[in-house]
Specification:
The complex is a heterodimer of chains A (364) and B (605). With 364 residues, chain A is mostly helical. Chain A has helices at residues 2-10, 14-35, 40-60, 64-69, 71-88, 108-126, 132-151, 156-172, 177-198, 201-211, 222-234, 245-248, 260-292, 297-321, 339-363, and strands at 90-92, 95-100, 105-107. Chain A has a 3-stranded antiparallel sheet with strand order 1-2-3. Chain B is an alpha+beta fold. The chains are: A mainly alpha (364), B alpha+beta (605).
Amino acid sequence: MSNLLNIIFNYVDKQFTVYLTILMLFGLYLIGEAAGFDSNFFYKQCIFIISGLFIYFLVSLTNVRTLYRFSFLLYLISIFLLMLTFFIGTEVNGSKRWLNLILFKFQTSELIKITLPIFLIFIVENFKKKSETVVEFFILSFTLIPFVLILIQPDLGSSLIILFIGLIIIFLNGLNIYKIISGIIVLLATIPYAWFYVLKDYQKSRVLNLFDPFSNPLESGYHSIQSSIAIGSGGLLGKASEYGTQTDLLFLPETHTDFIFAVLAENYGFLGNLMYFVIAFLLISRLVKITLDLHLHSNRLLAVTYVIIFIVCFLINIAMVSGLFPIVGIPLPLTSYGGSSLFIYLIIFGLINALHNRKTLIAN
Amino acid sequence: MEDKKFIFDRRIKLILLVFIIFFSLIITRLFWLQIYKNDFYFERSQANSERIEPIKPLRGTIYDRHKNVLAENLLSYDLVINIEKKSNQEIEYIITKLSEILPITDEIKKKFYKLKTERKFLRFIPIVTNIDAKLLTSFVSHKYEFPDVKIKEEFLRSYPYSHINAHLIGYINRISAHDLNNFKQDQNLLESYFGLTHKGKQGVEKFFEESLKGKAGFKKIRVNAQNSFVNEIEHIPPTDGKDLNLSIDLDLQIRASELLKDYKGAIIMTHVKTNEILTYQSNPSFDPNHFVNGIGFDEWNNLNLDPKKPMLDRIISATYPPGSTIKPFISIAGLEHNQISKDFKISDPGYYRLPNSKKIFKDWKKEGHGEVDLIKAIAESCDVYFYNLAYKLGINKLSHTLTKFSFGNQTGVQLPSEKNGILPSPEWKQKRYKQKWNQYETINTSIGQGDFLVTPIQLTHALNTLLNNKKIAPPSIIQKENFTDEFIEPSSITDDEFIEIVKLGMQQVTGDSGTFRSIAHKNLNKLAGKTGTAQVFSLKNKDYDEANIEDHLKDHSLFIGYAPFDDPTVSIAVVIENGGHGSSVAAPIAKKLVDYYFELAMNHE
């Protein structure tokens, strides 16, 4: 038995796994504070963490070459599920994002976040001899399909992450500077179009609220204001001993999901935040080190893409909760309540372990 | 390939740099929120969850002089709707659903929406006030369907004797948008009304508002985002309003109200020595209870458009020509200025010709009174005697003496909207009409006609001044603790002898030949006084024919009096609008009430 455990632990980076677990338990504790330690959310998150770790270990064992081989198939399955969601998905607050798998609701846009980078790297590797422009065209095309499918769910936050994945891979693959500049110009040119034809009214007001949240305090600005109040009232040390008025008294709704950081900030103050950032920093720096140590360029490209997604979601969530960024439904990685998001990150980290193992194998 | 790896490494560094910048921004933002603006956000988070709920004080109870309750607070139940964070459709839906089990008229709805727009800071707006037990039961059985409708205990101001004390007590009413605007001019005033919903609008309720209303307490409670109670932080109890003991006698009020039932008019009875008011009755009247939670539009209109003017307080806010009731005071002026003495006589042919003029002034008695001295002139109300006196005196001396009896000035009673009346004089006429005084106006003044106007309360006040021969304190509706005389100045206003002469005249009014001789041999309580008949409308060259004249043009019937004449205890003034002769209507009413006073006094002993 201990032998088996040894083998399993050999396949994962121990230091990284420890940081990962600490961050998840930190999140679990905050969910307990926000929703109650005897609430359904707390119990469910416990189960998510245990089963998520199991998946993490399992994925760490996979052979990445096989994944590359089947990457197109994985990509097709992801696209199929996205289309399926469009027809039979569960609708919550006017958007269809979930497939009801009875045990839990599965957010299909999460799956594509894993499969898309693998497939795009596969393209990069296999079209090495083609001109760069052709490769870039393919990458962009295969990115735009899921982007549009998620945009019409509608889920602006996730769709922008998908677009971001494609762009970051092109960028890291050595896109030349002229294309970058013209790309940026095109992007800027589409902003007015997007503003008038793509963004829904509630999304526009969320963007506008960023500049003046108090213009509409009871409706679209409500989250932003209440979240700022929660954070600001926390002060240096927080008010865990008193009433955490914003979160305990439910003025800030849904704190266990996207706004979990506000619970931390209100109850434990600025110092609590710093403590959290220290753990996150240890985790991320370990992740970056593992990633940059990878030998093969393609593997490194894949791992870096995953790490960038993780960091971007991390930063965007905190920026959103503290009122620096419009409210887009992006949870705080490894900390917010929710199975789909947790599994995705654990699978990603499992894959990075697998890539890491492959490097060790080659070295041996 | 090497080239690609070089680009990759450089770009990774670039991305990491962007992340670091982004992260520094976040840290700065958190520092700004949590450290720099901590106080601001902490306060806002408190404001989010703390609610201050006022605790209403009990309004002071109003008693009469024998501790009968005239205004009290009764426990009642209101249905209120919680309108916080609700759209108009949601509210309309609740009301429609309520109207399925309760009778909710358009009038009630209108009142509700008016209150909702006027009182923006209220969370609970009453929809049905003072709900009766039967309806309350039917609501309670449906209560679970109305999570936003609450039953609220309220103390309802109640006036048990309804219209009998209406003009005196007045009423309270919900604080209106207009009141609120007034309060906002004065921070202290605004604060003193914190937590209160009603305000005295008329009568005693208005005049003694400050001491009756009390001061609200409050409790500071913590609520969650659903506005549910979490815990109590602070509790300051309210200070109840002070009770008020009026000098009024409820039994006399009831009797006076019966006596006035068929007339438009006023009765005021006072203590001669203290100037305390015992009876304060104005008819027609209204039910003050209807005003407490807002009177209906139709009812308000009816009250205001009624030609009988039920809302008019005829004791202090209506003015009448005093008619012959002014003659005792004119007599004082004559005696004071040595124009007449007790024995000064004239011969009355039934009319008076103004010297150097063709103008003729008739006496009320066509054939004249013959040989008349002062006593007889007062007793029989001989007009010609006073025409003659007034001519000799002149208007300045006349009005000088009348001013001493407070004619033309408010008496200063503790009630709102008291009128001044008019004491005509050359200065007054110049100011008012920019015209010169005419001598015939002096003649009119001597019999209380012309521009001369008094309020009934001025009549008793002047009479009490005369009977005490002292400048007396203003009429009081508050019961005085010790039964001592209350005089502003200790010195007499005129010679005691003059007072005695006039009193003798007033005693003769109820004597064998006086205008009120009908009670001459049954005057047990020794009532003395003076009748008066005030012309409402001058009939040019036509004789006054009571049978053939429209009601509202008929003369007013007046009487002032006191009893017993050898030791004046109570004084009374009665005005009956369009009642005809003073002796035929007002005087008998006064007699009945005075008799009742002594009957009650005997029972109380």
